[in-house]
Amino acid sequence: MKDRPVQREAGQPKTFIPVYRPDLSGNERRYVLECLDSTWISSNGAFVGRFEAEFSRALEIAHAITVTNGTVALHLALHGLGIGPGDEVIVPTFSYISCVNTIAQTGAKPVFVESRLSDWLMDPDDVSRKVSGRTKAIMAVHLYGAVCDMSALKKIAAQKGLLIIEDCAEVLGATLAGRQVGTFGDVACFSFYGNKTVTTGEGGMVATQNAELAARLRLLKNQGQDSNRRYWHTEFGFNYRMTNICAAIGLAQIERLPAIVARKRAIADLYRALLSGSPVTCQKPNAGVASSEWLFSVLLPEGAARDRVAAYLAANGVETRPVFHCAHHMPMYRTGESFPTAEAIAERGISLPSFPGLNDADVELIAGLLKASLRQ
Ligand SMILES: *Cc1c(COP(=O)(O)O)cnc(C)c1O
Questions:
Q1: pLDDT-derived band of residue 376, with 50, 70 and 90 as boundaries?
Q2: Is the CB of 94 under 6 A from ligand 1?
Q3: I need a surface site. Which of 47, 115, 145, 331 has the fewest CB within 10 A?
């Protein structure tokens, strides 16, 4: 039989640019092979401690505790701080669902707040309004690379005696007043999912300056087992342990954190230059914030059909993502409240490909397609 030429379907693009693709070009392969060759693949392996130490050093945080993913990092932090039934935790409605789910998982009540149109993050004025006698903590969710107004949030927390949990899943590498994120609150949670700035496939970290809390989190993530007495459990706990294979990948990734963040910042700068003068609005981080530029995201002009813009880019081989939906619109969290700014961001936001392997020509192509889609 003769080979027939492959027929491309009409309209099928030649190129495909995903929203994210991890860069695993450093020591990842070598370290993973070390795990396999040594047979140390569980959480009992040297890479776990090495990854934690290197992460602590890179972020200048005293204690870093690996966990299975970013969601359980949040749950471990909340539970470790003693948050549970009868308590309230303030959280932006425009955030990733695991922020809200993990509060509910402890038995506490998530109390939603409005976002700011400038940086898309929780509005401290609304936080002040929502504090009640039951409020125990504020979950400061830093999104798309920008960092919450921590001085305003810390002031409220100090006045009202509240704890602050930072969700740093999207801001690894960001700084506030020249300091790495993760030390502004009582505890900080990170995610190493496949599209995060540092990835282990699935993975997470809880970090804190508080030695006593760190010891408690280590106990809780390991079934509440006494560190000196095997199978003796002093407290209700969980298995949230990271494997040595994930930690091996994480160590290789964190070794290259400055290079990865530098490339992502250059990509975002190029997008901003190419899109200036177009009708889209970029996220505008608060004063003193150097964004991690996790996923470069913009607000489309009011009235633009986001689905149509996404379909146009997809037809030309470029994947995009809508931003998160508001939690107060989800069936299990419907409150009947209205948050006009958060709702507008959720309706109009779109994320563009933002991985370190993109070249400048890719960015030019994507920005050009976005502008063309808005002229359609
Ligand atoms: C990714 C992410 C998480 C959850 O992390 P997983 O590792 O996917 O469980 C939590 N919060 C925010 C803001 C995130 O972006």
A1: confident
A2: no
A3: 331
Which of 338, 134, 362, 125 is CA-nearest to residue 267?
362
Spell out the long-range contacts of 9-14 with Cβ–Cβ below 8 A and sequence spacing 24 or more: 11/315, 13/315, 13/316, 13/317, 14/317
Amino acid 2: pLDDT: 40
Give yes or no for residue 99 CB within 6 A of ligand 1: yes
Ligand 1 atom nearest 95 alpha carbon: 13
Q: Compute φ and ψ for 127, nearest 5 degrees.
A: -60, -50
pLDDT band at 179 (very low <50, low <70, confident <90, very high): very high
pTM, rounded to two decimals: 0.95
Domains of the chain plus CATH, in order, are: 28-254 (3.40.640.10), 257-373 (3.90.1150.10)
Q: What's the gap in Å between 165 CA and the centre of ligand 1?
A: 14
Q: Please name the residue whose Cα sits nearest to atom 3 of ligand 1.
A: 70
Q: What is the pLDDT of residues 309-325, one digit of tens each?
A: 999 999 999 999 999 99
Ligand 1 geometric centre to CA of 99 (Å): 8
